[in-house]
Amino acid sequence: MKRIVLAAPHSGSGKTTVTLGILAALKRRALRLAPFKVGPDFIDPGYHRLVTGTPSLNLDGWICGADFIRESFARHAAGADLAIIEGVMGLFDGMDGVSEAGSTAQIAKLLAAPVVLVVDARSQARSAAALVHGFAGFDRGVTVAGVIFNNVASPNHEAILREAMAASAPHIKVIGCLPKDPALAIPSRHLGLMTADENPLSAEFLSHLVQVIERHLDLEALLVLEAGAGAVSREGGVGGVPRDGGVGGLAAAENVGDGAECEAREADAVDSAWPVKIAVARDAAFCFVYEDNLRLLRESGAELCFFSPLEDGSLPAGSSGIYLPGGYPELFAARLAANLQLTGELRGAIEAGMPVYAECGGFIYLTRGVTASDGETHPLVGIFPVGTTMLPRRKALGYREVELLAQSVIGGKGTKARGHEFHYSEMEEMPAGIERLYAVSRKGVRLANEGYRYKNCLASYIHLHFGSAQEIAANLVKSCKAYRKGHLHEDTA
Questions:
Q1: Which DSSP string do the residues of 218-267 spell out, in sequence order?
Q2: pLDDT of 238 higher than 70
Q3: In the predicted model, is pLDDT for residue 247 greater than 70?
Q4: Which domains does the chain have, with CATH numbers?
Q5: Rounded CA gap, 307 and 265, in Å?
Q6: Does the pLDDT at position 260 exceed 50?
Q7: CA 482/CA 486 separation, integer angstroms
Q8: For position 491, what pLDDT does the model report?
Q9: Which pLDDT value is given to residue 183?
Q10: Cα dihedral 323, 461, 451, 417 in deg (nearest 10)
């Protein structure tokens, strides 16, 4: 199993489009692909999944640490012919200016993977080779093995780029030169590109993208790049990779059903007498969730039942808990508000003490309502007595570390976890009577307490990655089991 990191000197170089083109072209060659995304981003993995039909996992060295990164990679890549890892921002950009934490370079080193730089060559000629040469020499622990030049203006421009690379960095393979092509632009807005649910990429777009990739890139050269290392094991380090797929691997890739259809159970229930079913919101409004969070819940005994707050009038039957991930509820606020049957059922479940974990968009959904950019306010579930307003500028962005201040549905006092916060919305001040469970810090600096609790409902703007504290998944399942036991007689009466 080979692995390649597609990185760039900076954001906006075109690495997402290039990644999708390579994935689509190799899929047409019947290769088994395992896609990954460096960092906390949710949008790019959605496109990876759209193109390959395989979930794409996030790899973030600061949030999850080296051991979890290696384990998660080995599980998901087992059985694949090639793992394609799309980088984040610039190759060496991460948590701060002095370390590799959270960077694409960190992941490349942890996984001993060769790096292919996607360089925007517009308005550059020989200088583009100098840029590549500098990136290749910045950290000797990172192997920059190839380069793809993007936005190449003409055949003469391509010839100069290739000539400059041959003269200054002959050991770095020029995989190809992609011409300018406005037809390959992916629409974007706040929080980044439009999601794959909203912009599913037409067959014509993908066909054209594959034609461009096949015509201008040397895919055979890409497939033989080496970083001088063996496979990554689940136990950490470099060694043999188990080939059985494993839980969470390609053999266990989930297929989301319609409405409240439950996926097949992939782990034994904590207690077979009381199945632990967790309802997970998943549709165009709630599409931001770490795939490893779902895997860890399954491995802790949960049966995940996906439902759509946009389409379904009720929660999946027998639910013992609810997971409301992030997304774009503000874009679908009118439809969410109109689904009175479901919002009423959610309020009833929370009032009854059902464990609920909500983050970012899921948190907004539980507030009194959201005022969209057009000024119209739409009422929502109303558990938290505050309104949410969309802003023209970003309100928050960055890594967060939280420490639980009390026992909760996801863990006990002192539990520490890491995640990311990114939103363009602002809430009214939460009443003092609503408990704050998170002591939040950023780069060691304390921020305002967050993580709001009402009964057994915990909601926050922060997207926690359960890989940063794997007991979170086990504790959430345990909380759901306790709720299920307490209400079993109601279901069987």
A1: -HHHHHT---S--PBPTTSSBSPPP-S--TTSGGG-----STTPBPPP-S
A2: no
A3: no
A4: 2-223 (3.40.50.300), 255-492 (3.40.50.880)
A5: 16
A6: no
A7: 6
A8: 37
A9: 83
A10: 80
For residue 487, which phi and psi values (nearest 5 degrees)?
-115, 10
Active site residue 64: no
Catalytic residue among 287, 360, 457, 480: 360
Give the position of tokens 């794959």.
Answer: 196
For residues 288 and 293, give the distance between their C-alpha atoms in angstroms, rounded to a whole number: 11
- As a residue count, the chain comes to 493
pLDDT in tens, 83-134: 999 999 999 999 999 999 999 999 999 999 999 999 999 999 999 999 999 9
Amino acid identity, position 222: L
For residue 30 the two structure tokens come to 């019947």
Angstrom distance (rounded) from CA 142 to CA 26: 25
pLDDT at 205 over 60: yes
Q: Residue 343 and residue 382: Cα distance in Å, rounded? A: 9
| φ and ψ of 261, to 5 deg | -65, 130
Neighbours of 69 (CB within 10 A): 25
The C-alpha atoms of residue 328 and residue 20 are separated, in whole angstroms, by: 23
113 close to 84: Cβ distance less than 8 angstroms: no
Contact status, residue 278 vs residue 304, Cβ threshold 8 Å: yes
Task: Name the residue among 417, 371, 346 with its Cα closest to residue 65.
Answer: 417
At position 68, the amino acid (one-letter code) is F
pTM: 0.87
Place of tokens 């500098």: 134
For 45-58, give one letter per residue: b (16+ CB within 10 A) or e.
Answer: bbbbbbbbebbbbb
pLDDT, residue 450, reads 95
SS3 457: strand
